[in-house]
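Run Pyridoxine 5'-phosphate synthase through structure prediction, thanks.
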Amino acid sequence: MSGNPAASAPRCRLGVNIDHVATIRNARGGAHPDPVRAAELALMAGADGITAHLREDRRHIRDEDVQRLRALDAALNLEMAATEEMLAIALELRPHAVCLVPEKREERTTEGGLDAAGQEEALRRFAEELGAAGSRLSLFIDPDERQVEAAARIGAPVVELHTGEYAEAALSTTPTRIQAAWDAIDRAAALGDRLGLEVHGGHGLTFQNVSNIAAIPAMRELNIGHFLVGEAVFMGLDDAIREMRRLIDDARTGMLV
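Sure, done. The structure for Pyridoxine 5'-phosphate synthase is below.
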């Protein structure tokens, strides 16, 4: 793998997803741990913004959580399905960003990217209405050049590339699989950049695999949640975020570890 940027490469932002703080809270049905408190701690530890997925079944983040997160002095990236219910909520709350993701009731977490190429007409309306309300639309897509091109035609200013295949490959001992997964992300990111899209990445990123993704020159933001919430058990959420921030920053200056 290559892709080490020059020292002048733009900073790569870190968005922290606090969904699974809410998952832990909901396991007992009480008020603790509070995902909004986690968001505040994340911002103090170096996160550039907060991501939260308001799922249709409300399995972790709830409507009142999103309202409280919106009240914070921070960039809120609201992940949601492309449904009329969710569009109405986003138009009312007007978060900094809205990321459309595929959603199935039976899945444990988001599985794969949105089929932007197969839903261009419907998604174009989301881009228009959300843009008019002041929210930047992002499409969570697989690192597939056909999907990137569709996102540009739709008018989404941002794409978030699904990094799950790379994360899975990085657990294997097959260098060719790892390289192929990274190459796909690198190509999709470069194409998005050429088409004028801002490129983000997320899903399955850890201390062990984030550096090579952060070193891709076109990558402008990484959204990471489950791993950081898990590491918080062992080292505290603030220290976990600071370490992730350090790894991303080092990768941007070519200091891969």
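The mean pLDDT is 93.
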